[in-house]
Design brief:
heterodimer; A: 140 residues; alpha/beta; Transcription Regulator spoIIAA; 2 domains; 5-stranded mixed β-sheet; 16% strand; globular; B: 234 residues; 2-enoyl-CoA Hydratase, Chain A, domain 1; 11 strands
Chain lengths: 140, 234
């Protein structure tokens, strides 16, 4: 397994099964990208793997062109395989990690939350971000 | 253009029309939002009386709305306080947000006809509607993150619901504007229309739902539009 990390992104490649992610040192990025070959497997009965993806404190993306359904369905999104640096640079352009994390919180809430939960999350994130924008505490 | 904020709610043949005609392409200033909230209260009162087949929201000029005046929003927010410790959101925000999100719960189809720019809080009016009909050459976006904030009037929750996680994340995180064709492709818009055809399309959709269903259940909004689109293809 090869793990590359920077402030915003952890990118993993060279894995055969998603189960390998459970014990990997992935850091605390905004986005975890797994470069997945078409044969990347995911054990559909692996409850711990379900929990890993459900509770991941970052957005999860599978970079693959023809991913298996079992693998792809675990991720928040599927993006094209290959170099993702341009994609992530565009996403996080001109943002601090803290700002991106505030926005991420709403999307992470969407994994298991209701519409009401997400609506609530976006309001709280708005006031934290606005306080920081206005020069106040950013609740870091 | 006049400085008058002219936001009108009219009713004809059981269809409510909410038309925004305000300065600077419907920029959502404090005065705009005050009027918007008042008109939304009228909508709620009218809905309670029954007999409404649908509601169309649109810009009276070239654009739907360019969204909030970020400087005014920043000034207002400085006067409001929020702390994670007590977790109590400012009452003004809760009230304002309810006037946006309640559109989704109305017992008749609410359709935003998008022309020109539909940006920021303007887009949040659209995504809180049940349906969006987008006209050719329109552009939509949620650029709040480029100002260091995020859409908080339903823009995150509703975009996830209608566009899916990936598309919503890209819209919100990049803040990029997208053309009408792409908005339709990613599911932001339900119907792509030629210029000037948005309102006739909206009326046609309202008539279809009214004629084919005894009541409009907001929770089934996807079912109605799927049936309508299927009927047009038949």
């Amino acid at each position: 397994m090869i793990i590359k990390t920077d402030e915003f992104v952890t990118e993993v490649s060279g894995i055969a099964s998603l189960s390998e992610l459970k014990d990997a040192e992935l850091g605390t990025p905004c986005m975890l990208i797994v470069q997945g070959s078409d044969s990347l497997s995911a054990d559909s009965s692996d409850k711990a793997l379900d929990d890993f993806f459900l509770n991941a404190p970052y957005i999860t993306a599978l970079a693959a062109d023809s991913p298996s359904g079992d693998a792809a369905s675990r991720f928040d999104m599927v993006i094209p395989a290959g170099d993702t640096s341009e994609y992530t640079a565009q996403l996080f352009k001109d943002k601090t990690k803290w700002q991106a994390d505030q926005i991420n919180a709403c999307f992470i809430a969407a994994r298991k939350g209701s519409q009401a939960d997400i609506l609530d999350c976006e309001s709280r994130a708005f006031y934290r971000l606005m306080a920081a924008k206005n020069g106040g505490s950013d609740n870091e | 253009m006049s400085d008058t904020i002219n936001i009108e709610l009219t009713e004809e043949n059981g269809v409510l029309s909410f038309v925004m005609n305000a300065p600077s392409n419907n920029i959502m200033s404090a005065a705009f939002l005050e009027k918007f909230e008042a008109v939304m209260d009228q909508v709620a009162e009218r809905a309670a009386k029954g007999g409404i087949k649908g509601m169309i929201i649109r810009g009276g000029g070239r654009h739907f709305s360019v969204g909030a005046d970020v400087d005014a929003l920043s000034d207002r927010s400085q006067k409001e306080s929020y702390s994670d410790e007590d977790g109590i959101l400012p009452a003004s925000h809760v009230r304002q947000k309810a006037r946006f999100t309640f559109l989704r719960d109305l017992p008749f189809p609410v359709i935003s006809v998008i022309t020109g720019f539909c940006i920021g809080s303007g887009s949040e009016i659209a995504v809180n509607s049940h349906y969006r009909i987008i006209e050719k050459n329109a552009r939509v976006g949620q650029p709040e993150s480029t100002f260091g904030i995020l859409p908080a009037l339903g823009g995150v929750a509703r975009n996830i619901e209608i566009c899916g996680m990936k598309n919503a994340y890209e819209l919100v995180m990049t803040g990029e504007m997208i053309p009408a064709e792409k908005a339709y492709e990613i599911g932001y818009a339900d119907i792509f229309a030629d210029k000037k055809q948005g309102v006739p399309e909206a009326l046609s959709l309202i008539e279809y739902i009214s004629e084919n269903y005894e009541t409009f259940s907001p929770a089934r909004f996807r079912e109605y539009i799927a049936a309508y689109k299927q009927s047009r293809e038949a």
